[in-house]
Design goal:
This protein has 255 residues and is of the alpha/beta class. It has helices at residues 33-44, 56-64, 79-90, 111-122, 138-142, 189-197, 202-207, 211-216, 236-247, and strands at residues 7-13, 27-28, 31-32, 49-53, 69-71, 98-101, 128-135, 148-153, 160-167, 178-188, 221-225. The chain has two domains: 1-109, Spore Coat Polysaccharide Biosynthesis Protein SpsA, Chain A (Alpha-Beta Complex); 112-229, Alpha-Beta Complex (Spore Coat Polysaccharide Biosynthesis Protein SpsA, Chain A). It has nine helices and eleven strands.
């Protein structure tokens, strides 16, 4: 890892979302959702940003707005595989030390959080970096759609640590906040390749959480705490809530 790592930000995107079809192209404050996410990636200023598009319509929308897109095989099994495919096309000489996977349904991602996500990889030597937000919310505790990270923190302020497990169940037991996992990842380039070469693991299949594949294979996942979880857009209700929030922002802050 170089002293000043170079990061490539990749946003995987496809139209075939189950709960919200054609999600990337749905408009929020007059702009396609994927363009909001693209702008958040650019604002992080980590390096080039590219959309790994499973569909030509997404690529056209991105490129028509002046962004960069790579068409990837729609049959790829996951967004992570799409990220690797785009990284291999954009960077065949492996000039980038770190690849950031920014989910395409996070139009309100905070650019500074992307910077935090790469810290475990750069500063701690972890294979993968990701983010958590502490929560005492009883609804989040019991909601299986809110993934909880079980983290061994290495500082008394509980701002950085290593992930021991991820689960949809309330964990760990006992008093204290749970850690709401935020699905932004940073990978060492070789770790991304290794991960995508692995078969889905038993715990991954059981929990339906692909990051467990990495843990079962002995890969390290470092964690940084952030203050707020950026809301994702998975349902029509999520979309309407995002439209209301972003409509209130000045036009220059929407993209």
């Amino acid at each position: 890892m170089s002293a000043e790592p170079r990061a490539l930000v990749v946003i995987p995107s496809r139209l075939a979302a189950t709960r919200l079809p054609r999600k990337p192209l749905l408009e929020i404050a007059g702009v396609a959702m994927i363009l909001h996410v693209l702008q958040r990636g650019l604002e992080a200023d980590l390096g080039p940003v590219v959309v790994a598009a499973a569909d030509p319509e997404i690529a056209f929308t991105v490129e028509n707005a002046g962004g960069r897109a790579v068409l990837t095989d729609p049959a790829l099994p996951s967004g992570t595989d799409r990220v690797l495919a785009a990284a291999d096309e954009i960077d065949p000489v492996r000039a980038f030390d770190v690849v950031v996977n920014l989910q395409g349904d996070m139009p309100e991602a905070i650019p500074a959080d992307l910077v935090r996500a790469i810290e475990p990889v750069v500063a701690d030597g972890c294979d993968i970096g990701t983010l958590v937000v502490p929560t005492d919310d009883a609804r989040e505790r019991d909601d299986p759609h809110v993934v909880k990270a079980v983290v061994s923190f290495v500082d008394t302020a509980e701002t950085r640590g290593r992930a021991l497990y991820f689960t949809r169940a309330p964990a760990p037991a006992g008093r204290g906040p749970l850690q709401h996992h935020v699905g932004i990842y940073a990978y060492r380039r070789d770790a991304l390749e290794r991960f995508c070469d692995l078969e889905p693991s038993p715990l991954e299949r059981r929990e339906r959480l692909e990051q467990l594949r990495a843990l079962e294979a002995g890969m390290s996942i470092g964690v940084r705490r952030i203050d707020h979880a950026p809301p994702g857009v998975d349902t029509p209700e999520d979309l309407e809530a995002a439209r209301r929030r972003l409509a209130r922002r000045p036009a220059g802050e929407r993209r």
